[in-house]
Amino acid sequence: MTEPILCTPDETFVLNLGPQHPATHGVLRVKLTMDGEYIVEAEPVLGYIHRMHEKMAENGTFAQFMPNTPRMDYLSALSFNQGYCMAVERAAGIEVPERAEYIRTITVELNRISSHLLWWGAFILDLGGFTPLLYAFDDREKILDLLEHVTGSRLTYCYYRFGGVYNDIDDEFITGTREFIKRLRSRMPTLYHDLVTGNIILIKRLKDIGHISPEVCRKYGATGPVLRGSGIEYDVRKNEPYSIYPELDFDIPHYPEGDCMARYMVRMDEIEQSLRIIEQSLDKLPGGPVQAKVPKTLKPPAGDCYAAVEAAKGTFGCRLICDGDKGPYRLKLRSPCFSNLSLFGEIAEGMLLADALAVMGSLDLVIPEIDR
Amino acid sequence: MDTSIWRPILYLIGVMAFAGVNAAWLGWCERKGAGHIQRRIGPKEVGPYGLLQPLADGIKLMTKQLLVPQGVDGILFRVAPVLAMIPAITSMVAIPFSATFHARPIELSVLLIFALASIGMMAILLGGWASNNKYSLISAARSVSQNVAYEIPMLITVITIVMLSGSMNLEEIALQQKGGFWNWYIFPIAGQSIAQAIIMPVSFLIFFTCSVAETNRAPFDMAEAESELIAGHMTEYGSMGFGLFMMGEYLNIVVGACLTAILFFGGWDSPLPFIPSGVLWFVLKIYLLIFTFIWIRWTYPRTQIYKLLNLSWKILIPFSLAILLLTAVFIKIEGILI
Amino acid sequence: MSIIRETKWALLELFPEQKATEAEAEVAAWNKIIADARAKAEAEEAAKAKAAAKAAEKAGEKTEAAEKAPEEAPPPEAAPAEETAPAEEEPVPEMDPEGDPPVSIEPESPRPLGVLVRDYKARGVHLDVLCSPDQVVEAAKLLTGAGYFLESVTGVDWIKEEQMEVDYDFNRTDGPLCRVVVRTRLPRSAPEVPTVSDICPGAGWHERETHDFFGIKFIGHPYLVPILLPEDADYHPLLKDFTP
Amino acid sequence: MQTLFCQPAASPSLFSAEGFVGLIFLLTITIVIFGAAIATTSKRLVRCVAGLAVAFTGVAGVYYFLLSPFVAMMQMLIYVGAVSILIAFAVMMASPESHKGTYRGGVLAGPIGFSTGVIFFAALSILGLKTEWQAFPRQETGSIEHVGMAFLTTYSLVFELISIVLLLAIIGALVLARRGRSRV
Question: From the CB coordinates, do chains A and B have 3 or more pairs under 8 Å?
Fold first, then answer.
């Protein structure tokens, strides 16, 4: 760690990073107090695209809120779909058919890969490498095509229903997915790892930069790849198994270094693990219905429940409080990036501007999800 | 006085035309090259293969209003883009395109190019400062510290070549490398002296790295690192102010490529003795070098400013000094032997 | 001991009354189990005496095993919790000192302060703590000391009851799963609760958000300014009587 | 050149090579004076530095006129490329705010400066007028060998002194820079 240069307060200046800035990936503003190129203090300012999703939930029925979920984290929309569905299913006591759970797993993992691919491209773009973004988009395009085929939309999927999924998958999707797995597996080592991961400039930019200790993660409640990059083997899919994850064989990649490179490697490995999960789910895919019998208007009994899923960025939690009515009495959406970003202020101190932006990129922020 | 005073003037006009056209279509080349590197097509809508895209861009830039934001230093803000362009164009005068195709023989053409390059640095500095924008200011500070750091190893490597060739005249240097590619300074096979044979490839690497850094190109584009500083010193510039900066940048690349081609690749000399040499070879070489610039830019991520400076101060400068010393020793030894 | 049991007993420190009754219930439950086991063993012994020689051998092994269990019973403090009334006539389910405590009965609303064990399948949480506002900091300290981290903070507006609720979701990253929700009820007219942001800095933003949406004041928060709402916002949109 | 000033009637036509050269000479002189004027009168430090750079460029032009391209180039490289940029750099780093004025000294600063300038100018003019100027034939082509030899033999002291110029520039820049900051 480089020590910040000691200085009197009047030698610092405030740099407004954002709300429109190439590195903030959206409308995030970071108020940086700088001493030359060193950051003395960093304060993220949020809320530029706050849309009050939680109030919208209270105003409608359970089903009416469904299309709001993909609008939060538009990059891993299905995870948010699933989190909300799980909360409602838990409250109403709905059992999801096995085939639907498999389909959910396949699609949500595809979505996770697409989210990680986009992050990968955008992160390298933050570091000044332009080309990988397009390679990532090339592969992501295939996922979008596949998901479009079953869900009907390309980005803001609203595919899951309480008690199942909207649409059954067909052979075209299955063969397409298998082909995609083969394709990505063949491209990963050359295009992704040889070109970028092994690049000396990239390694120098990421190694020993932005060290986040497990203690800091715990203090701020950081989850997902950020936490796993700090060496903690925590994944909701394994620690709090939901859906069909207990039946599948996959690992949780984790790296103890806690620097940007560790977070980078976690995500890269997660892509491979997701491929494994999809492959196994496709092999085991059972027959049967994809939608349970669910009453037309859901009226879960009064009470509250909590459901958490592993979204691409970390734990997405839904606290649903019902009062026996047609819609939620209160819906709290615990978004992963909100917590992940909150530690930025602490770790950015004394960092170079360029490094701080690398760290911000490595947190994988999606601003609509933070602001909700 | 030289009576052929019109020659440099006409040449200058020619060079200006060349510069404008070149900068515009280098932009096209860059976009097309980037496109193909990124497995997409690149510009294709305007004209065949998007060849008229630069025209469209130029018209767009020219018809836009030159916005002078509030709080900027008006004069310096307007002067800076021009200042970025002038030295770049002027240094073209010093470059011999072939044995006959040059403005006028300038004895110290290498020195002239470096002298003019230092003015170009001033443009970024003033433009960045006058913009009254913190990003621009940081960018100006960065680019100056970067240029100062990289000018030193670059000059030292040039001095080794000057020592070998005994001349600061680019024409003279090019002529010394004539007669096949094995005579070019970069190739260690059959050079004129032992010193060249051993040292030149390393020297070339240092020189090329420095010229990438001096022209503010990725992976050393600290001054306009868009994820950190938006567009650096050009953040506040629109229309032709921006256009001039861009043209200046492309011209600097051309000058850098020309210099590299002459110093290390024999200038207009053809690679094999039985093929006639000429300006075409020179153009081919510089465009190959420019392609390398583009290729590097679209392949590598950006370095970080302090690591960049460390690279210069801790690696390139000591190495280039060692090379300088070695060259001097070799030349002396050869002098004694012969 | 299971993590849920451990956490429950740690949290019961906050509620001495519930702790006392639970401990008593534990002892009673254990006594009953021991008594049952003895009775079972005796019955089996009687049956064994009647049985043939081969069957007698097998039954003997079982008795030994059954007799071992009561000896392992822990002292009352560390004893596993048991909330179902021990006096119930139906046979008490087999108790495993390593296992999770059984689910609490759904309490009548308004529920008393204390710790409840929830059905994870239906609720998504394991432990549900209702405490008074001034116990929140203590609870947070206990939980972070036990290796938990704060996942989120949120509020609920119970307008009919003229109350506000603040929920703190705790989770842990290492070891087995245990989700704890700590709730506290505040009067709706003056919702104030001490901040936990000095114990878990991550709470800082969540509390700011809750303040934005509900107007709940977190006493001692270092920087309680709007985070998601505009900086000059003086309204709290998640209140049930909010009209835009 | 003197003919140009003394005998305007006999001055060569503007479009001849001679006339054009004279024009360029006048231009360089104007650049020097213009730059110097900016450097001394401007209220913004950065503009002063820019003016200084302009003046240096003009001086380089004069050197070129004196058939000494090497010195002209060095003038550009060292004074414009290094000294001015160092100063400008330091001034910028001193304060991020743009409104950084030049430092105004006491009441006596103006008159003293002015009189020093006048005395200097007068002395130089007298010297220039009194000296019997004669054109030196150009001794050599200014090739690298000659320059190198000259640097390391006849003018070695001068060569070393150049480094002091850079040192002075750095110190001056630091002095300028520190002034804007709080005295710690």
Answer: yes
Does residue A47 belong to any structural domain of this protein? yes
Residue A3 is assigned to a structural domain of this protein? no
For residue A331, what is the nearest residue in chain C, using CA coordinates?
C156
Q: Strand, helix or coil at D95?
A: coil
On whether the CB atoms of residues B27 and B246 are closer than 8 A, the answer is yes
For the four alpha carbons of A71, A77, A82 and A83, in that order, the dihedral sign comes to negative
Cβ atoms within 10 Å of C133's Cβ, excluding its own: 16
- The verdict on residue A1 lying in a domain is no
Beta carbons of A8 and D184 less than 8 Å apart: yes
Instruction: Look up residue A128 and give its amino acid.
Output: G
Does CATH place domain C114-219 in 2.30.250.10?
A: no
pLDDT of res. D119: 92
- State the pLDDT at residue D8: 43
A20 reaches B (C-beta below 8 A): no
Binary contact (A339, C202; C-beta < 8 A): yes
Residue B205 CB neighbours (<10 A): 14
Over residues B231-242, the pLDDT tens digits come to: 778 888 888 888
Q: How far apart are CA B244 and CA B84, in angstroms?
A: 7
**Both structure tokens of D125:** 């003019």
pLDDT, tens digit, for every residue of B264-311?
A: 887 787 777 777 777 788 888 888 888 888 888 888 888 888 888 888
Beta-ladder partners of A16: A31
Peptide bond into B219 cis (omega under 30): yes
In the β-sheet with A13-17, what is the strand arrangement from edge to edge? A13-17, A29-35, A38-45
Distances (CA, A) of B23 to A362, B26, B117, B332: 36, 5, 17, 44
Between A285-294, B157-166, C73-82, the lowest mean confidence (pLDDT) is in C73-82
Structure tokens at B237: 């510039």
Is A4 a member of any domain?
A: no
ipTM exceeding the 0.95 mark:
no
d(C-alpha C31, C-alpha D144), whole Å: 107
Confidence tier at C77 by pLDDT (50, 70, 90): very low
Q: How far is CA C230 from the centre of its chain?
A: 37
- Give the separation between CA A220 and CA C238, rounded to whole angstroms: 24
Contact B108 D76 (CB under 8 A): no
Amino acid letter for position A136: A
Residue A279: CA count within 13 A, CB half-sphere = 15
Nearest residue to A39 via CA among A282, A371, A326, A360: A360
Q: How many CB atoms are located within 10 Å of the residue A338 CB?
A: 25
Instruction: Name residue B44's amino acid.
Output: K
Compare CB distances from D182 to A10, A13, A36 and report the shortest one's residue. Answer: A10
Alpha helices in chain A (DSSP H): 53-59, 62-65, 77-92, 98-126, 131-151, 171-187, 200-206, 214-220, 225-228, 236-239, 260-284, 336-342, 344-347, 353-362, 367-371
**What pTM does this model have?**
0.80
Q: What is the CATH number of the domain that holds A84?
A: 1.10.645.10
Q: pLDDT value at position C74?
A: 47
What pLDDT is stored for residue D144 in this prediction? Answer: 65
Quote the minimal CA–CA distance from A7 to chain D in Å. 9
pLDDT one-digit tens code per residue, D118-153: 998 899 898 888 887 776 666 555 566 677 777 778
Domain count, chain A: 1
pLDDT at C192 exceeding the cut of 50: yes
SS3 A315: strand
Q: Are B241 and B207 in contact (CB under 8 A)?
A: no
D144 interaction partners in chain B (CB closer than 8 Å)? 162, 166-168
pLDDT value, residue C141: 85
Look up the domain containing A119 and give its range.
9-370
Cis, peptide link before residue A19, omega less than 30° from 0: yes
